[in-house]
From TrEMBL:
The keyword Endoplasmic reticulum does not apply. It comes from Desulfofustis limnaeus. The chain crosses the membrane at residues 25-45, 57-75, 96-117, 137-159. Residues 33-160 form the Tripartite ATP-independent periplasmic transporters DctQ component domain. This is Tripartite ATP-independent periplasmic transporters DctQ component domain-containing protein.
Length: 173
């Protein structure tokens, strides 16, 4: 039977794999943005023109990069937040506040995931063709992917903070 430490390691291995996949995809997207933007600038400088399809592609890549970056920021707990009273609280109260804010964020992210799936379904049914004659719903798949990742990261934060509250016991401060 595995020890609690081994179970803990195995449980969070999935999280590490998810984060590694997000980092890899974000690295590829940012590399493509840099290379393609430099290529477009070079073409405009040398030929007084550029590739017509490259600017819309770069817009999509920037959208993908921004949403993947938001998912990674959530995974690392570096997302935008306002800490109005957290610094005034003791450790246990601050962890309870963190649990509540992560729980609230998980619920909000869940509804965003639901909305993005409805959006993609609508794009699938009624959307037209986009760049490279691909349907627009394919280009917009980043919305459900990123918001699902954000939801999972917030949910895992809830579980992690909840576990730390249980481990410390009711008398810890």
């Amino acid at each position: 039977m595995p020890s609690p430490e081994q179970r803990e390691t195995g449980r969070w291995r999935v999280v590490r794999i998810l984060i590694r996949a997000e980092e890899t995809l974000l690295t590829l997207v940012l590399s493509a943005i840099i290379v393609l933007a430099c290529y477009q600038i070079l073409l405009r400088w040398l030929t007084q023109g550029g590739l017509l399809w490259l600017d819309p592609l770069l817009r999509y890549l920037v959208l993908w990069g921004g949403l993947l970056g938001a998912a990674l920021a959530t995974a690392r707990d570096h997302h935008i937040s306002m800490d109005v009273v957290g610094y005034l609280l003791n450790d246990r109260a601050a962890r309870w506040l963190r649990l509540l804010t992560n729980l609230f964020s998980t619920v909000v992210a869940f509804f965003l995931v639901r909305a993005t799936f409805l959006f993609i379904r609508s794009e699938y049914e009624f959307g037209g063709s986009g760049l490279f004659l691909l349907p627009t719903w394919i280009w917009n798949l980043i919305f459900p992917l990123a918001f699902t990742a954000i939801f999972l990261h917030f949910l895992l934060n809830v579980l992690q903070v909840g576990a730390s509250l249980v481990k410390r016991g009711p008398t810890a401060s």
